[in-house]
Amino acid sequence: MIPVVEHALLGLSVAALLGAALRVAALTGAGGIDRVLAAAPLAAAAAIIEALVLGLAGLGGTSLALAGATAITWLAARLALPTPEPRPLEHLRRWWGGLSPAARAMVGACAALLAAYGAFLMRFPAFGDDGLNYHFPAAAGWVQSGHTGAVVSYFDDLPTGNYPITDEVLVAWAAGLSHSLVVVTLWPLAQVVLLALAGWRGLRLLRVPAPAAALGVAALLTSPIIVTQAIGPNTDLPATAWLVTCAAVCAGSRRHPGLLAAALVAAGLAVGVKTTAAAPALAALAAGVWMARGQIRPLVWPLAAGAVTAAVVGLSWYVRNTITHGAPLWPLATTSFGDPVPFVLRQIDDRLIGDLGSIGPRAGGYAGQLGGGLVLLLGAAAAPLIGRRRAVAVAAAVALACVLVWTAAPYTGYPRGEAFDFPATNAVRYLLPSLAAAVLAVGLAARREGVPRWVATALLAAA
């Protein structure tokens, strides 16, 4: 098929799934950014399910089959669900019309910067080590074979095909439609946009002052972890983007409890991409249920549908590993009755908590990898003293608990020696969900007027 036609099919398919998802999200009563944030995980989940179903028949890399499945999804939503009012373009027009000149200039500058960076990546693509070694090869292999979701490993002693693969399946859906590297290069930028929108909206729904919310989002987006992830098909960025989306949608459930169903799907996507998102995602869902308490009983069926969808897109890989290897987290971890961890991974299966003294000689490396994230974590530790509210203490506890769990997780500690300095310090990317929770903790502390607000805002500015 002519490449321009395949790329047109990709554009139409994305628009169709978003259109169908917006109709579903409109049933919650939410509008504006809340509706968009609820629709994003629903559209992604639909694409993943379509790719997996077609993959069973060996059609996961066929453009017409993928586009046809998307068209059926859109048509079913159009026939079964009412037209949302106002329509998306009208929503966009109203939103743009309500912005001040300064806000329009800021949005325009961000869009121009994003477009310039996208053009740069198109000219000089750089997938990163993991992206080049197994994240993208998995998606490319599925496009070539048609069996999306099948276990595909490219190393004899390292079965990466058993890692969580939700993001790879989503990339394979898009690459199967376009048969090019364009979508692989630009997909991280879409995740950056989603992370920014969700972070801003979530903080504002929680009554975080606008300056603190803007600085918090900027601190997260400019962290070295995000910057080095936003170049190709890596997984720490998308896991965090879906996690923050889950949290933002949960924040909106106070006014629109039906959003919890979409939050479940977003949580499933986050966990399906990276296990590091599991604990904070559960915390966000618990907070959402608490905020919507007393209004959940009428939502049993939507929540059940959201839970089933989340299980399909997020837990399938863990269930498969349990059935085939006796451990949901295999090959990274095993159980007493599961297959042993592969030899290669056993050689680096050290925990940082077992040798905290190794941090000292590598302090510069850790600081370079964390950047302003170190300020965020320190701010989260101080946030309960600054904000003096229960919500601040809970958010700070989640952030710091994730750090503690990280130090006790495998592959965070390495033998001392210069040869192991980079892999040891590179493991801080698993802290990205902790940094998101830290932004929330410091942002919530900024709600307290007076000196506490200035201190919290200054911490976010420094980060």
How would you classify the helix and strand content by structural class?
Answer: mainly alpha
- Helix content, binned percent: 55-70%
State Rg: 22 Å
What about the largest sheet? none
How many beta strands in the DSSP annotation? 0
Given as residue ranges, the uncertain stretches (5+ residues, pLDDT < 50) are none
Order of helices and strands: HHHHHHHHHHHHHHHHHHHHH
Strand content: under 5%
- Principal-axes geometry comes out as globular
Quote the distance from N terminus to C terminus. Answer: 48 Å
What does this structure look like?
By secondary structure, the protein is an all-alpha fold. It contains 21 helices and no strands.
